[in-house]
Amino acid sequence: MNDRILGIGALALAAFMTAAGWGIEAPFAYEPVGPRAFPLLLAGIIGLCGLWLVYKGGHSVEANPPGANGRIALMMAFTVGYAFLFQWLGFVVATSLMTVFVGRLFGGGWVKCAIGGVVMSLFFFVLFDKVLDVVLPGGLLETLI
User: Fold this and answer.
1) Cα–Cα distances in angstroms (integers) from residue 27 to residues 76, 114, 136, in the given order
2) What are the residue boundaries of the structural domains of the chain, listed by start?
3) Which residues contact 65 (CB under 8 A, 6 or more apart)?
4) R_g of the chain, CA atoms, integer Å
5) pLDDT of 60-91, one tens digit each?
6) CA-wise closest residue to 79 among 92, 90, 93, 95
7) Which residues belong to any copy of the DUF1468 domain (predicted)?
8) Any idea what the Cα angle at residue 61 is, between residues 70 and 106, rounded to 5°?
9) Distance CA 14, CA 92 (A)
10) Among 11, 17, 56, 57, who pairs with 4 as Cys (CB 3.0-4.6 Å)?
11) Which class for 101: exposed (0-12), middle (13-18), buried (19 or more C-beta within 10 A)?
């Protein structure tokens, strides 16, 4: 029954995303498709996956192993914190911290998570901000980058 409940939730999310994304209009035409294409495409994919879960769901589901629910709650808290601190801390610092904490949730060591987080956030900052010209917030490191 859990798969079908998740499928119904996915369908509700897809409907909400479609309603919210339908009215998105750019003040000027800068792309052939416009800004509404991404949320509508994502809503379509989520809706199809939701339909599949409702249709094929109903399998028995095992309970989460001990401690998994706490890690799931922490992951949600980290994601909310990341969203709220992203602009103020900047992409590099916020993504580094998020990567370290998520890596620790999955059993990684402090040093490996820290090195991986910093290298990954710097790589993606350079890729998106400098190469692909997608503006990312500098935050605390604005003067350095």
Assistant:
1) 34, 42, 22
2) 1-56, 68-141
3) none
4) 19
5) 778 888 988 899 999 999 999 999 999 999 99
6) 95
7) 5-137
8) 35
9) 31
10) 57
11) middle
